[in-house]
Amino acid sequence: MAVKVALDVSAVPPQIAGVGRYVAELARRLPQRDVTTTLVTRRADTSRWRAISPSATVTGLVPNARAARLTYEALILGTSAAARGVDLWHGPHYTMPHRGSTPTAVTIHDLTFFTNPEWHERAKVAYFRRAITYSAQHARVLMTISEFSARLLDEIVPTHVPVVVTPLGVDLEKFQLSGDDDASLFDAHQLSLEFPYILFVGTFEPRKGLDVLLSAFAQIAQHDDEIELWLAGQPGWGVGPIEAQLAAHPFRERIRRLGFVEEALLPALFRHARAVGYPSRGEGFGLPVIEAMACGASVVTTEGTVMAEVAGDGARLVPVGDANALAASLVDVIDSSETDRASWATRARLRAELFTWEACVDQHLVAYAQALDVS
Fold first, then answer.
1. Which of 5, 178, 238, 346 has the fewest CB atoms found within 10 Å of its own CB?
2. In whole angstroms, what is the distance from residue 35 CA to residue 232 CA?
């Protein structure tokens, strides 16, 4: 599809995870699909994006401070030369310029600002509710990263422009069932393959269910003298109760905080975990689940959520917020035979192979064509 697209990457933080991973994959892959791509960045962030996507044009227009960035996007960015010089503007994080005439596509990740405002800072709830409603009425097309989010959008903002579902993907070459350098990667990060561990990957924030996992681990560790809990991720909003729970945890000496984990190490961590616990209360997609499954990990996540939609039969499901059920399921995974683990690994990998970044980009091209009314 020969089209000129401006992709606003200005909201992506320096350490890329989650939504940032999605935006970076688009930035890398759109130029490979005959899309002339301009990446609109923060003014001090151009070098990073030139390294991420060497084939794209990078223009640093957006102020670095968050408040100034949001005001600039709403009032100025849509009338900039970058916007006027393309066929389509893509806002990949709920928002879009309020001024300008360039056709716009907007990605909606989840609707938790409406359904569960307690999971977010109050100022963000008010802002993103307005932004989602505005985009739903003024964009040419919306993209949701799951069918789950598309259904919620219909319920919460019933009057909206057309929607194209663009499920996220996984890099099946990076996230594999085996890896030749796992031992050296562990050594380089002062980790040992000798310790059995449950792995959590995600930002420490209320909706991730880390409090539930910590409660479940207290039960598991009481009966298993070796198992550890490894936490990969950074503190986010509302982390105070989690920090208190960690400090008071009866088995805190067996909880290892890994911080932000670089992309090279993450597949190895998934491959060697005895189990991956992802008891999130709600997401737009749940990228760690599908990445873990691509590595053959035994994943336990939450039923009735988008993670259940994504995982299919490749993961075990427990009720949201149920520490007892989570502990029981994790113990079942940890105690499973090698035959059972191999069977689950095969099932998980086959499910993960249905979600690729190539397919994600395909759906974006469908959305772009719809926004521009071309076939």
1. 178
2. 35
Domain 182-352 classified CATH 3.40.50.2000? yes
Q: What is the pTM of this model?
A: 0.94
The CA distance from 159 to 164, in Å, is: 15
Q: How far is residue 306's CA from residue 292's CA, in Å, rounded to a whole number?
A: 16
What percent of the chain has pLDDT above 90? Answer: 92
User: Contact 284/145 with Cβ under 8 angstroms?
Assistant: yes
Q: Spell out the CATH class of 3-168+356-372.
A: alpha beta
Q: What would the pLDDT profile of 183-200 be if each residue is shown by its tens digit?
A: 999 999 999 998 899 999
The residue among 214, 281, 294, 282 whose CA lies nearest residue 254 is 214
Same fold, 3-168+356-372 and 182-352: yes
Burial per residue of 168-203, b for 16 or more beta-carbon CB atoms within 10 angstroms, e otherwise: bbbbeeebeeebeebeebbeeeebeeeeebbbbbbb
For residues 95 and 93, give the distance between their C-alpha atoms in angstroms, rounded to a whole number: 6
- What are 242-248's contacts with CB under 8 Å, separation 24+? 242/204, 242/210, 242/211, 242/214, 245/211, 245/214, 246/214
Q: H or E stretch including 317? A: strand 316-318
Specify the DSSP class assigned to residue 231.
Answer: E
The β-bridge relationship of strands 3-8 and 35-42 is parallel
Name the residue ranges covered by the structural domains of the chain.
3-168+356-372, 182-352
